[in-house]
Amino acid sequence: MARSRPRKTKPTRKRRAKKTAPAATAPGVIPMISYEDGIAALDWLHRAFGFKETARQVTPDGRLSHGEMTAGDGTIMLASPTPDYQGPKRHREVCAHARKWSAVPWIIDGVLVFVKNLDQHFARAKAAGASILSEIESDPPGKRYRAEDFEGHRWFFFEK
Q1: pTM recorded for the entire structure
Q2: Is 134 left (phi over 0), alpha (psi -120 to 50) or beta?
Q3: CA angle 23, 81, 84 (to 5 degrees)
Q4: Bridge-partner residues for 60, per DSSP?
């Protein structure tokens, strides 16, 4: 009977985890919002709404060219596009049409954000100077409130 030789095994290599492209891990939709003062927006949105800054790129003249914040499992991008840009609040000051369509407390060109504790979130936003467009409402479709940030962008907060 012939003896079989022990088989040589190839050394195993540890497989490296594949790096995932940013788009593969990003939320399906990311709002991109312009601010007259993007640097101030990063700070204000953190203080008022609890968003967390994850990126800040500033131009040599001190303008925010790209900023990112997380809100729960979502992402928001913001920047100051040009010195000529007017946020909604300033635009309403010089445009009668913008004043008219902004007279309602509804979300116009705004962002919907889900939060864990709406009462706490509301108190934080109010204390930071957010313009409250509606007090907390609890009827269907759920517990929610509406607010404007310091440049007039509108936000709709729902309890998760």
Answers
A1: 0.83
A2: beta
A3: 165
A4: none
Q: Say if CB 45 and CB 38 are below 8 A apart.
A: no
Q: Which residue carries 């479709």 as its tokens?
A: 141
Query: Side by side, which strands form the sheet with 111-115?
Result: 111-115, 154-159, 144-148, 131-137
Structure-block tokens of residue 43: 């700070």
β 144-148/74-79 pair status: unpaired
Give the per-residue pLDDT at 106.
93
Q: How far is 95 from 98, CA to CA, in rounded Å?
A: 5
User: If you write DSSP's letter for every residue of 121-144 in order, what string do you get?
Assistant: HHHHHHHTT-EEEEEEE-STT-SE
**pLDDT tens-place string over residues 8-62:** 444 444 445 455 556 677 778 999 999 999 999 999 999 999 999 999 999 999 9
Q: Is 82 strand, coil or helix? A: coil
Judge whether 157 and 121 are in contact, CB under 8 Å: yes
Dist. CA 21–CA 65, nearest whole Å? 22
% helix / strand / coil in the chain, to the nearest 5? 25, 30, 45
Domains by residue range for the chain, with CATH: 30-159 (3.10.180.10)
